[in-house]
Amino acid sequence: MREMLKAHIQNRLDTYVFKSKQTSREIMNEDTIRQKQETHKRRGAEIVKCTATARIHSIHEDEEQREANVFYEVHIRYLIKQKDNLYLEEEADQRYAQWVDGELQQDFSVQDEGGLTSPRFIPPQEEDEQHQQDLRFKYSRMEAVRYAEQYWNSYNPQFKKFEVNCTNYISQCLYAGGAPMVGYPKKSGGWWMRNNDWSYTWAVAHALRWYLPSAKQGLKAKEVPSAAQLMPGDVICYDFQGDGRFDHNTIVVAKDENGEPLVNANTYNSRMRYWKYEDSTAYTPSIKYKFFHIQDRN
Question: Are 178 and 139 in contact (CB under 8 A)?
């Protein structure tokens, strides 16, 4: 079983760099691979090498049904060439695969992109003026990015981990950059996590999207019209369906050769990913984005 899984993963890796044309073996979910290749091609980039490490969580075999079910984690590294420069994109995926009579029947991710299962949004409420604090801070983009790189595929035990962790991760990055928590203990007020409790703005994608441009104290952000205007440490919010409900947040950690953002994210853990998410299973032609430039509070 382990050898079959290893061969399956290797075939997928080979397909990313166009090496599997000589093989007659069918590649499961090949359309998602082609989508990622096309995304890079449109921006003048190419996957030139692809490697992976995998860890099996469990194997369930039924000899009578001649069936094997495998839950596994795969950490994929894509070496991307854009113009004359190289960089490494990474993702960590939790997957389920099934073999029947030695033939692969299905293989898919068990993770959703973004916050599609986040709690219902409750609009944040600002503190009364008399309770507002003069919380000045200087935002350290270097520290926010350093934190984003350190924890893109692991979890800081000082904070609660959510099943849908994308916004919790972004909030931690902003906090690491110097943005102060405010509003405790109001769930729908301010931006905070304390004593195993948290505000909606800290952990819910849609709540953070509305809080960033409207906060009266602490965290401060300005909406800009294009991704090219963002810098490392800034935030992108995603409405995959284009229905006004924002599902996902990422943090900019670098810029590519075209001056466009590369981002890190949690839930479907990824780093140095092209910001448009055109290769995401959650992507739709109706997708909408919001671009927020984090500012100092002087």
Answer: yes
Determine how many CB atoms are found less than 10 A away from the CB of residue 238. Answer: 27
Question: Cβ atoms within 10 A of the Cβ of 253, count?
Answer: 23
- Between the two ends of the chain, the Cα-to-Cα distance in Å is 60
254 forms beta bridges with 262
- Separation of alpha carbons 180 and 174, rounded Å: 9
CB contact at 8 A, 203 and 168: yes
User: Please, are residues 108 and 98 in contact by the beta-carbon 8 Å criterion?
Assistant: no
Can you list the alpha helix ranges (DSSP code H) found in the chain? Answer: 2-16, 30-42, 141-150, 166-176, 200-203, 205-211
Q: How far apart are CA 263 and CA 139, in angstroms?
A: 18
pLDDT tens for each residue of 138-194: 999 999 999 999 999 999 999 999 999 999 999 999 999 999 999 999 998 899 999
253 near 271, Cβ under 8 Å?
A: yes
Cβ-Cβ contacts under 8 Å for 157 (sequence gap 6 or more): none
User: For the whole prediction, is pTM greater than 0.85?
Assistant: yes
Q: At what angle do helices 141-150 and 166-176 cross, to 10 degrees?
A: 140
Distance CA 103, CA 107 (A): 11
